[in-house]
Amino acid sequence: MAKTNFQYEKRQKELEKKKKADEKAKRKLEAKNNPKPADGTPGEDDADEADEPADAPAQPE
Predict the structure, then answer these.
(1) Rounded Cα distance, 24 and 18, in Å
(2) What pLDDT score was predicted for residue 46?
(3) Most buried residue, 18, 32, 36, 48, by most Cβ within 10 Å?
(4) What predicted TM-score, i.e. pTM, was given to this entire model?
(5) From the CB of residue 50, how many other CB atoms can be counted at a distance below 10 Å?
(6) Neighbours of 42 (CB within 10 A)
(7) Which residues, at least 6 apart from 36, have a Cβ–Cβ distance to it below 8 Å?
(8) pLDDT reported for residue 15
(9) What pLDDT sits at residue 48?
(10) Residue 59: phi, psi to the nearest 5?
(11) For residue 15, what are the CA distances in angstroms to 4, 6, 55?
């Protein structure tokens, strides 16, 4: 029976944890540099969503 390589598994978990932490830090930094307006008006990132016509019919559910 093969022996489980716990060191390899631990290293993979550590790498995954570090990757997630780096992604989270990147998202926080982007959010800090590009804050969305508090009044609900579309910001730079929301410009694509605001291009839709206001008189478009609503989608039936």
Answers:
(1) 10
(2) 54
(3) 36
(4) 0.49
(5) 10
(6) 13
(7) 43, 45, 46
(8) 98
(9) 54
(10) -75, 130
(11) 19, 14, 49
In the prediction, which pLDDT does 56 show? 61
Residues in the chain: 61
What's the pLDDT at 58? 65
Residue among 22, 41, 21, 25 nearest 33 (CA) = 25
pLDDT tens, position by position, for the chain (61 residues)?
Answer: 788 889 999 999 999 999 999 999 999 999 989 877 667 666 555 555 555 556 666 666 6
Q: Tell me the CA end-to-end span of the chain in Å, nearest whole number.
A: 56
Dihedral (CA of 9, 15, 17, 20) sign: negative
Q: Tell me which residue has tokens 């609900």.
A: 40
Give backbone dihedrals phi and psi of 24, rounded to 5 degrees, phi first: -65, -45
Each as own residue / partner, the long-range contacts of residues 54-57 (CB below 8 Å, 24 or more positions apart, any chain) are none
